[in-house]
Design a protein that fits this description.
OB fold (Dihydrolipoamide Acetyltransferase, E2P), Rossmann fold, 5-stranded mixed β-barrel, 3-stranded parallel β-sheet, 16% strand
Length: 460
């Protein structure tokens, strides 16, 4: 037996010391890592501002945390079910003996994740009504001032100015912004709000329409224009003119309400002057009389309608019974006709089958007779024999047999083996036999050797 190891001298740790040692080991071993996985269990930031969730794949899961200050400066925010690449530091949480990643930055895992995020964002904003057709406005036919939100150093602003100069010279106001990278979405949204905040008739003219543009690029480069803050700022551009119109109408609403109230008051006063007790009593009596007459007419109409319905249903019942009897009789006649036809067809089929069998039997007998007449075995039965060489090929002439050649002779009652006489001259080889042998001198005839017959071969 093996003695148990002596663990008396093993170092002793408290739970806190062991947890701290594990924490240092994990942090020193891994440090900052990049982890790809799907966000699971994310329900939004905690009341403290921190975010707690998990990253998972097909077979594993790791807890994750984003501190409040890191979440505030993140351009790409976590969302449930989104596949991301998280960069952070691996550490442990001693209170629950688990390891976790403290995330510093977050980015979508490829174009597919960005498209899924954009579709989800579109559904969310569409549910709020931001994309309703009723909110859209027609572009002005002849805008005087055009506002452009873009980068002042890019090719886009030069293309816009060039096209306007060639086709439609207008006054252009440029609000320079970043169109890519951190803070670009906020700058674009601020530019849209800034243009909308310009007063009518101010020192800087308010644009009749806005162009928010940038050059081409990858989906990640263009992502700033898909941020929610930009969409909401644009929707608030859309509402600026209706809101101004609403303010103008709201200013005139008290006067309109007061005038409408006076008009209705005059109408009601005129109507009330015509209303007296006698008039009301007469109208009530007249209405009661009309109600009584209407009730009597309704009763008479209901009775007449009920009588007509009963007569109609009685006629339908009689017709239904007659139809059932006629239908049953017709069905019985049809069944009888079909049964008689079936018997006739069965008799014809039986006769046809007998005729066909007789014809086939005659054909088989004729074919058997023809086979017997054409078979070589009939020739053998008349006293002839079939000679084959050693390879089983039939020999048609003596010239095809070489000296001392092995032969097989088939008779009607069996086969015998033989050897050709050696006193014959060398034979020429037939096209389907052995190669032509060299000529040699004739030898004395050897006695014919006869072996016992072999079994008769099969016809097929």
């Amino acid at each position: 037996m093996t003695a148990a190891p002596n663990l008396v001298n093993a170092p002793e740790f408290t739970v806190s010391e062991l947890s701290s040692a594990l924490k240092r080991t994990v942090e020193d071993r891994f440090g900052h890592v990049r982890v790809r996985g799907e966000i699971s269990g994310f329900r939004g930031p905690h009341s403290s501002g921190h975010c707690y969730f998990a990253l998972k794949d097909e077979s594993a899961k790791i807890e994750a945390v984003i501190w409040k200050f890191a979440h505030a400066r993140m351009r790409f925010k976590p969302q449930e079910g989104l596949e991301v690449i998280a960069t952070g530091k691996l550490t442990t949480y001693p209170n629950s003996s688990k390891y976790q990643i403290v995330i510093d930055s977050l980015e979508p895992a490829g174009v597919g994740a960005l498209m899924a995020l954009m579709e989800e964002r579109k559904k969310k904003l569409a549910a709020e009504g931001l994309f309703d057709e009723a909110r859209k406005q027609l572009l002005p036919w002849l805008p005087e001032v055009i506002g452009v939100v873009t980068s002042p150093t890019g090719a886009v602003i030069r293309d816009i100015l060039h096209r306007l100069e060639d086709r439609f010279p207008r006054r252009v106001l440029v609000w320079p912004v970043k169109v890519q990278g951190d803070g670009s979405a906020e700058q674009v949204a601020a530019a849209i709000r800034g243009f909308n905040a310009l007063p009518e008739g101010g020192r800087i003219p308010r644009p009749d329409l806005l162009i928010v543009a940038r050059g081409g690029g990858s989906l990640e480069d263009l992502w700033s224009f898909n941020e929610e803050i930009v969409v909401r700022a644009a929707a608030h551009e859309l509402l600026a003119i209706p809101r101004q119109r609403l303010d103008h109408l709201a200013a005139g609403l008290p006067r309109g309400l007061k005038a409408n109230t006076h008009a209705h008051f005059r109408r009601f006063a005129a109507s009330s002057s015509r209303l007296t007790i006698g008039v009301l009593r007469g109208q009530v009596a007249h209405a009661r009389q009309r109600l009584t007459a209407s009730g009597e007419r309704i009763t008479l109409s209901a009775r007449a309608l009920l009588h007509r319905r009963r007569e109609r249903f009685s006629g339908l019942e009689i017709r239904l019974k007659a139809s059932k009897l006629a239908n049953a009789k017709a069905q019985r006649n049809a069944i009888a006709r079909d049964l008689e036809r079936t018997h006739r067809l069965a008799e014809r089929a039986r006769r046809a089958l007998v005729t066909t069998m007789q014809r086939l039997e005659a054909r088989v007998a004729h074919s058997g007779q023809l086979l017997s007449a054409l078979s070589y075995r009939g020739v053998l039965a008349r006293g002839f024999a079939l000679v084959r060489d050693a390879h089983g090929h039939a020999l048609h002439s003596a010239a095809a047999v070489g000296p001392n050649a092995g032969l097989s002779i088939e008779f009607a009652d069996g086969r015998v083996a033989a050897t050709a006489n050696a006193d014959q001259p060398p034979a020429t080889v037939a096209p389907d036999s052995q190669p032509k042998p060299q000529p040699r001198e004739a030898k004395p005839a050897a006695p014919k050797r006869v072996t016992k017959p072999v079994d008769q071969g099969s016809l097929f």
